[in-house]
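Please go through the protein record below and see whether the fold suits the sequence. Record follows.
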Amino acid sequence: MSNSRDSAFIEALHSDGPAADRADKMQLYGRFIGDWEMDSVYYLPDGTTRKGQGEIHFGWALQGRAIQDVWRIPGRNPDGPDDPQKSLMFGTTLRIYDPAIDAWHIVWSDPVKQYYSRQISRADGNDIVQQGTDDNGTLARWRFTEIKPDSFHWLGERSADGGKSWRMEVEFFVRRSRQTQLKQAI
């Protein structure tokens, strides 16, 4: 249910596009604005995998000076309320470009799993690399690779030895949602 308070919040958060003073730099993540579907593969420490499907939504925020996205696995339940206990992931990222360091501050929050991460992000050739540490002090690297207008591959890795070696933790195979593709075709 929506009310005027919700509308005011959404209006204050949402922006129609990037801020003019940094529009070119905002396109690093701005190209992802819209709705996406994903298949995920989690690589568990015992060597097994867990697969899931979900959704991602990217939008302009804070007068076009940030991009906020919501990631959730599984996706929304069209038949009833969501069960947070079945969630593999349900959180949001705030991505803010910082002209002083020519990089992005990345802040991830998953309130269901109580997992939080802060990273710095930059382009690396055709890829995007985000790196930082989690609450345990473990080095984490998240990468957007194989970026195309309608798809990308996202890798989540951890290093227990300061970046000398990396363990794959999760992969997302992401594609534009069918609804977004239909809107773009019209």
Summary: Strands lie at 34-43, 49-61, 66-73, 89-98, 103-110, 115-124, 127-134, 139-148, 151-159, 167-176.
